[in-house]
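#help-structures
NK: newbie question, is this the right format to request a structure? protein is Signal recognition particle protein
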Amino acid sequence: MFENLSERLSGVFDRLTKQGALSDEDVKTALREVRVALLEADVSLPVARDFVKAVQDKATGQAVTKSITPGQQVVKIVHDELQHVLAGNDENPGELKVDNAPAPILMVGLQGSGKTTTTGKLAKRLTEKNGKRVLMASLDIYRPAAMQQLQVLGQQIGVDTLPIVAGETAVQIAKRAKQQATLGGYDVYMLDTAGRLQIDEVLMQEVEDVRDVVNPRETLLVVDGLTGQVAVEVAEEFDGKIGISGVVLTRMDGDGRGGAALSMRAVTGKPIKFVGLGEKMDALETFEPDRVAGRILGMGDIVALVEKAQETIEAEQAERMMKRFQKGRFNMNDLKMQLEQMIKMGGMEGVMGMMPGMAKMSKQVKDAGMDDKVLKQQIALIQSMTKLERANPQILQASRKKRIAKGAGMEVADLNKLLKMQRQMSDMMKKMGKMGKGGMLKQAMK
Ligand code: GDP
């Protein structure tokens, strides 16, 4: 689907010259290609247009990071925007609402989309990962083979299925599943509805009736990720009639490169929760926007390169700071940078949690009140200082202290603690600085 996008882009980018900032013309040329490629990949026109507009706004005038070309930088911006659109505001795509046992999950979609397979995959996941007791039931009264397929799957993965009773309607089966799930103490029951080759009224009405009987916690639409624009139309149709809570894109292991995912997210506004990556029962993954974005672009390496370049810049900043430390200088500006760095790394807790053997300590740190909140308060105190005060904290007398504390909505005692911390760090820096270049600090920063 997206085969040509990376080629197209590299063609354009080869022509772009190295400059200080991305020019309007560079960006426009690159984006024209992005737009054509998206359209060719079956992304709908309004989605492609909005997408390109968003990238253009972000890219124009952005300073070019050292050691990469403007073209590479555009790729990174395109990648980030793809990721942004794909992710929406969904925090945990892989989590399903399965509280209030027995929680009904309604599986809907066209025939052949991978609905039954996905029902099995999800049941397995809920059982193994979430420790849920799951009951599966097939409502496909038109195809006895489909009922048996689910039963066989259940045996394979060790998940119970509702016994098959001939002659029942879909609603009757749904009611029986609900009853058995309640009596049997199941946490979740999954209803695999009948699919058709195309959406038709009878099918929709049947799914609606089932929905009204069980009042599902999740209604998941299973669509074939290879069908591009068609998948989006199917999703709109189902969402309009039934109301879906999320989407599972199957066959993402195939040749398609995720074009459907982009339109799907942008058009329906529904979260993509999982992707199917094969026929096996464990070939299901939580939807990862950045991975899919990389796939659409087919340029993961460039994105990694740009990230590396940005890291280098941060390393350069650290190097500059180290030089200051070696001279024994450590004022409030330095402290602020340190505190901000810590928040970026996930706060005290995060920093310590990353170090082997320190996980227990990180809890103590939290209990002692040294969490993100404190770091932010300390930064607020520093922000409340004038430039002169930040560079020379020793000039802080009672009246200045009162003003600063008040400005940050804190007490003078809090400010005193911060000042003490800065003095101690400054002393430590001086000592380390005396150990000379290549001393302890350099070692520690490696
Ligand atoms: P249903 O008619 O919607 O219930 O579709 P099925 O679950 O029977 O799946 C139809 C075919 O697609 C089967 O051969 C599945 O093994 C296959 N299938 C389902 N999901 C995936 C997937 O994520 N990747 C691949 N490659 N095949 C899949």
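mod (FA): yep, format's fine, and the tokens are attached above. The beta strands are 103-108, 134-138, 160-161, 188-192, 218-224, 246-250, 272-276, 284-286.
NK: thank you!
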